[in-house]
Write a structure and sequence with these properties.
About 25% of the residues lie in helices and about 25% in strands. The chain has about 700 residues and is of the alpha+beta class. Among the domains are: about 140 residues, no CATH class; about 240 residues, Transferase(Phosphotransferase), domain 1 (Orthogonal Bundle). A 5-stranded antiparallel beta sheet has the order 9-8-18-12-16, with no helix packed on it. Strands 6-7-20-11 form a 4-stranded antiparallel beta sheet, with no helix packed on it. A hairpin with a 2-residue loop joins strand 25 and strand 26. It starts with a helix and ends with a strand. GO terms for molecular function: ATP binding; calcium ion binding; polysaccharide binding; protein serine/threonine kinase activity.
């Protein structure tokens, strides 16, 4: 029966077409799954996408429905189920599992599987390893043999062995004992086997015992004793229903290295070699390299110098591509190899040259050190003179101003620079005059021709000259500048002192935000900083003042006050108003609650805007003045709202008869006080928490 089956298989396999191999070297650059559970799946093997494996014979399926997942090798037409992959080696080995054939008998019991399921790899790149496997039989008076064929021969072969149990009572078969024929026998198999089946029989009756036969990895430890032969003890069969078997694989089973058309050895520093276990060829890295020869760049240089056991150098090891070189340290001679002349110390001589060089270098060092010390002394002396002159010429006053303003950067101009900038102080460059002492350092600012927004709003005769369109544009430009500081600067900046006196206007009424003396840079990797409370009464965020939290919303509050100044023409703090109404923000909120918005608005604003537009601006101001900073908009949102208001179409005038009833003159006038602003500078630390 077995012979008939093998002949049938052989003839069927010869009629099949040769499988063309499609190299999938591109898989090395793809994101292919390379693990199934704990099993590594290196190219030419792969899973999923066809570009992840060389051809269908190297296609591996990962069964993740079980725990742990199993890697399965398919495309074996003569095996009813896929083979479980236990290990894949790029040296041309693949470890799988094969069933044990058994025969257990007694006078009243018979459990036999004397003919194993046939298995064939005839048309595939796989064959059973003749160097890694042994055919094994275990039992008493047992005859076991395997029948099979190779890919290149039409002849059927048969190998087997006989085991007996004479004196076998104490025999133990494990990694420390050989299988010599007593209760166990082993025999090697010929090379090139691609298909076989196993048969088992008894030479003579040996009741109440079991016999086993299988092809197995010769390094596998069966952990078997003669007691396992009893049919009443089935732990061996239960434990070893399948045993590991090693397959040899090649890159192409139909070609040699010289005949290869779809060449598989893609890596530089790789070599091709023909298989010794049947036809075909495989690849390996060149000597001195390791890795995967089947992908581009897969073979990497081995640095033998990292491991003292992998090189034979006596003293110094120098790694080279694919090799290494030995060298002796300075003061030694020889080839450096342990198996060569090694390294021997040079004969000692009086180091005349070293003494001369050492003495000369010592004198040179002393000269350089002396020169450097003298240069430091001269520099220190010069610095002390400069400090003396600085103090004599008002430098302390400048230092006090710098400390008071707490600016991060100041540029100190020299007399020569100022002379060049003013054309030697020509009279034609004078734009104004004031007290000047030529012995005291002065501060130099950029000249802004149109003054401050405070000047245009609050000084007599200027306010009506600003149209509503210009007011909205000025407010939009202020908001854009603050949005840039908060969100677009390389490091966020909180201005901390936004007020109309710090908004400069050029000839075209273009806004320039000034006075960054109390501003703070906020590092992106910090969430808290410690600073001093600074700002101006009427503009200072009440939440910051009460809770100690300074955020970008504090600038939003101050901006809301400036927006009120543009709408009402009123000052942020006015001592001429009643005590409750001195603060413009609180005054505005209270008037809005009592529906007296239009009573507060400046006359030109009322005449140039619609009711809807005025209400929208007022609502934006209220949002900016929320006591809870979390409820205020960010400056980006304010910019968007103001840009929308600027495009708002005025449908009708607020000077209609219905609105006239709401208008009245401002109940209290405000005159500018001596300072124009009321500033606060606390002397206690607060913790600034950034919500980013």
């Amino acid at each position: 029966m077995a012979l008939h089956w093998l002949v049938h298989v052989f003839l069927w396999c010869l009629s099949l077409a040769t499988i063309s191999s499609s190299s999938s070297a591109s898989s090395s650059s793809m994101k292919c799954q390379r693990r199934c559970g704990k099993i590594k799946i290196p190219f030419p093997f792969g899973m999923g996408d066809p570009n992840c494996f060389r051809n269908k014979w190297f296609n591996v399926t990962c069964d993740e429905s079980v725990t742990p997942p199993k890697a399965l090798l398919g495309h074996n037409r003569l095996v009813k189920q896929d083979l479980e992959v236990l290990d894949i080696s790029l040296e041309g080995h693949l470890k799988t599992k094969k069933k044990i054939i058994h025969d257990c008998r007694s006078k009243s019991y018979n459990d036999t599987d004397v003919i194993g399921t046939p298995i064939s790899f005839y048309e595939s790149p796989y064959s059973f390893s003749n160097t890694r496997n042994k055919f094994t039989a275990v039992g008493c008076n047992t005859l076991a043999y395997m029948t099979g064929f190779t890919r290149t021969s039409s002849q059927i072969f048969r190998v087997g062995c006989i085991s007996n149990c004479f004196g076998a009572a104490s025999v133990i078969i494990n990694g420390s004992y050989s299988c010599t024929g007593i209760a166990c026998c082993q025999t090697p198999i010929p090379p090139g086997i691609v298909g076989f089946q196993v048969d088992i029989s008894r030479v003579s009756a040996w009741w109440n015992s079991c016999s086993y036969a299988y092809l197995v990895d010769q390094d596998y430890d069966l952990k078997f004793t003669v007691l396992n032969l009893s049919i009443t003890i089935t732990s061996f069969l239960d434990r070893n229903k399948r045993v590991p078997v090693v397959l040899d694989w090649v890159a192409s089973q139909n070609e040699t290295c010289e005949e290869a058309t779809d060449y598989a050895c893609l890596s530089e520093n790789s070599i091709c070699y023909n298989s010794t276990n049947g036809p075909g060829y495989s690849c390996k890295c060149s000597p001195g390299y390791q890795g995967n020869p089947y992908i581009h760049g897969g073979c990497m240089d081995i640095d033998e110098c990292k491991n003292k056991t992998s090189h034979n150098c006596n003293q110094m090891c120098i790694n080279m591509p694919g090799s290494h070189h030995c060298k002796c340290r300075k003061g030694y001679h020889g080839d450096g190899w342990n198996n060569g002349t090694r390294c021997t110390a040079d004969a000692k001589e009086f180091p005349v040259l070293k003494v001369i060089l050492g003495t000369g270098l010592s004198f040179l060092f002393l000269l350089i050190a002396s020169t450097w010390i003298y240069w430091l002394w001269r520099k220190r002396r010069s610095m002390k003179l400069k400090e003396k002159f600085f103090q004599q010429n008002g430098g302390l006053v400048l230092q006090q101003k710098i400390n008071t303003r707490r600016s991060d950067t100041f540029k100190i101009f020299t007399i020569e620079e100022l002379e060049r900038a003013t054309n030697n102080y020509a009279a034609s460059t004078i734009v104004g005059q004031g007290g000047f002492e030529d012995q005291v350092p002065i501060l130099v600012y950029e000249f802004i021709s149109n003054g401050t927004l405070y000047h245009h709003i609050h000084e007599a005769g200027h306010l009506p000259s600003i149209s509503l369109e210009n007011r909205l544009r000025i407010a939009t430009e202020i908001a854009e500048a603050l949005a840039y500081l908060h969100f677009a600067a390389s490091m966020p900046i909180f201005h901390r002192d936004i007020k109309s006196a710090n908004i400069l206007l050029d000839n075209n009424f273009t806004v320039k935000v000034a006075d960054f003396g109390v501003s703070r840079l906020v590092p992106v990797d910090h969430t808290q900083i410690t600073t001093l409370v600074q700002g101006t009464w009427g503009y200072l965020d009440p939440e910051c003042f009460q809770t100690g939290k300074l955020t970008d919303r504090s600038d939003v509050y101050s901006f809301g006050v400036v927006l009120l100044e543009l709408l009402t023409g009123e000052k942020a703090v006015c001592l001429n108003r009643s005590y409750e109404d001195r603060n413009l923000a609180m005054y505005f909120v209270r008037e809005m609650k009592e529906n007296r918005l239009f009573q507060m608005l400046e006359e030109r604003v009322r005449s140039e805007a619609s009711v809807e537009q005025l209400m929208a601006i007022a609502q934006l101001s209220l949002r900016c003045l929320k006591l809870n900073g979390e409820k205020r908009p960010i400056m980006k949102e304010v910019v968007v709202d103001l840009q929308g208001l600027r495009g708002f179409q005025k449908h009708h005038s607020v000077h209609d008869q219905e609105i006239e009833k709401l208008l009245c003159e401002t109940s209290q006038g405000c005159k500018e006080d001596a300072g124009g602003q009321y500033s606060v500078s606390g002397n206690f630390d607060i913790s600034l928490t950034l919500n980013r």
